[in-house]
Each structure stands twice: as C-alpha cells, then as structure tokens.
Amino acid sequence: MAGAMDIATPTRTKDIIRKHGFTFKKSLGQNFLIDKNILDKIVDAAALNKDKGALEIGPGIGALTERLAQEAGKVAAVEIDNRLIPILEEVLSPYPHVSVVHGDVLKTDLAKLWAERFASCSQVSVVANLPYYVTTPIVMTLLEQKLPLDRIVVMVQKEVAERMAAKPGGKDYGTLSIAVQYYCVPDIVCVVPSGAFIPAPNVDSAVIRLTKREAPPVDVSDETRFFRVVHAAFTQRRKTLHNNLAALVGKDRKGELAGLLEASGIKPERRGETLSLQEFATLSEALASAGLIE
Ligand code: SAM
C-alpha cells in the first residue's frame, strides 16, 4: 500500500484538486484533512479490523476513506457533492470493498445501507471528518435511529466536542451533552488546529469518540418524554428549572410543580444545567406519575 496514505498531505491534496479542477464549497463544510498524524489518531481511535465495517460521512477526496479501507473489512462512504464522486472512484479504485454512495446522509436510508453493505460485519463504526454545518443532526440521527454501531469517531468543532463531553454544572452542559451521554460514553481524543485542513476553518476542531452504551445509564419509561423534559429545562438557560418547566406543565400547575420538584430532591430554583442524567430521569418519571405531563 505504499503511497496509499499520502492523500493527506498538502502537496497530494492540491495535486488531486488541481487535476480535477475542484473548488471548495464552504456551504458544504468542505475542509479537507492534510495532516497524516491526525488521520492516524482518528483511525487508532476507531480500532477497526477486517471483521468490522466503517461508515464514513463526507469522504471528500478520500484521504480518510483510504485509511479506513486499509483497516476495515467493508467501508461505505456517503458524499453529497457529485463533483467528488469521480475523484473518489479514481482514488479508491484499488479497494473493491469500499462503496461510495452519492447522497445527503440525512436523507439516506441508513438501516437499508447497513443491511446492504455491512451484513457480513461483526460491528460497524462511524468514522468521519464531519461537515460542521450539520454535525448535530448527523450525530443525533445516528444515535436516535438506534443503528447497530459500536462507536462514532468524528472530527467536529472543538466547542461542539466540549458540549458533547460536558458534565453538569458548566456552561457547555446542555441538551446535546445529555442526548449524547444517554446513548454513549464520550471522550475527546485530540484537539486539532485549523492548519490541519485545506482550506483552514476559522475554528479549532477536535476528534471525539462516542462509545455506544449497551443500555442507557438511567431508567426511563418513555424516551420521548424524557427528552421533552430535558429540552424544556434548557429553553431559557438563565431561568430556573421551575420557571422553564412551568411552560411545559402549564402555569396553573406551577404550585404543584414546585412541590413535586422538592419531593424529588431537586430545588426548584436550580437551573437545568446543574441536573445530572439521573435527576432528569427521576424528574420525568415523577412528572408523568403525577399527571403533570403525558
Ligand atoms: N473526509 C474528508 C477529509 O477529511 O478530508 C472531507 C471532510 S469535509 C470536512 C466534509 C465532507 O462532507 C465534504 O466532502 C462535503 O462535501 C461532505 N458533506 C457535506 N454535507 C454532507 C451531507 N449532508 N451528506 C454527506 N456528505 C456531506
């Protein structure tokens, strides 16, 4: 595979781009990785082997895809930009176990893709340098669809990685932290400076690994209700939990709500950002039992 790992260098990336007359589209989050050490870190964090499959979202010109092809038994890469498809076909032609799918990942039937491409794989990981304008919808789609995947290793904006991994009590902790941590254990693999990409984005980035949990860490009888309560608690971050939840249960039941919060061991004047997953679970179950929400 000599030379196969060389796409992620400024020279080779520029050569490929020049040869195909490619121009970057900022609107598609096109910042291509040109740092081999960062690619190594992403691939190491994914811990692939020949029994495993890898789904890449947004392969660009195939720098990461090529590395995944060398590690995984099957690779599927979903790319929205049709101008990149011929480049990918050329770059990835030595790898018959890689399939490039042209489309928007958010409109792709992922369950079907799993059945068609990964049936022979023991496990599947999602590994990607994500387009930043759709990071949260992509990660939430992957988690909420309950796809059989073991981990997600993705490059995201540093600030988004910090929000995903945040613990209660700080400004970074919010609905994204809770949603991610309900399904996964997050850990930040490395922080990546903007110089690792062409063109350089105007934000720092980070690689985050989300290891899928076997089961959520808290018992909730209705996930939709649980996340409704979480969202309500963060509607206005400066407001107390009591005031934010009053909008959910109805202002006329505010007194009852205060009593229920106290009875659940949660001071009504606390803010949503101080509650742990367990406290949110306790609260959503208590609200339902008391008939304050459906
Ligand atoms: N993987 C390449 C790399 O690391 O150099 C490119 C990463 S670049 C940050 C993001 C890629 O996602 C681009 O190739 C872009 O065209 C693609 N993309 C943007 N939106 C997409 C979407 N909704 N579905 C699939 N691919 C998308």
UniProtKB/TrEMBL annotation:
It comes from the Bacteria. Specifically dimethylates two adjacent adenosines (A1518 and A1519) in the loop of a conserved hairpin near the 3'-end of 16S rRNA in the 30S particle. May play a critical role in biogenesis of 30S subunits. S-adenosyl-L-methionine binds at residues 31, 33, 58, 79, 104, 129. Its EC number is 2.1.1.182. Transmembrane segments: none annotated. It catalyses: adenosine(1518)/adenosine(1519) in 16S rRNA + 4 S-adenosyl-L-methionine = N(6)-dimethyladenosine(1518)/N(6)-dimethyladenosine(1519) in 16S rRNA + 4 S-adenosyl-L-homocysteine + 4 H(+). Keywords: Cytoplasm, Methyltransferase, RNA-binding, rRNA processing, S-adenosyl-L-methionine, Transferase. Residues 38-214 form the Ribosomal RNA adenine methylase transferase N-terminal domain. NCBIfam families: ksgA. One of its GO terms (molecular function) is 16S rRNA (adenine(1518)-N(6)/adenine(1519)-N(6))-dimethyltransferase activity. InterPro entries: KsgA/Erm, rRNA_Ade_diMease-like_C, rRNA_Ade_Mease_Trfase_CS, rRNA_Ade_methylase_Trfase_N, rRNA_adenine_dimethylase, SAM-dependent_MTases_sf. It is found in: Cytoplasm. It comes from Cohnella hashimotonis. Belongs to the class I-like SAM-binding methyltransferase superfamily. rRNA adenine N(6)-methyltransferase family. RsmA subfamily. This is Ribosomal RNA small subunit methyltransferase A.
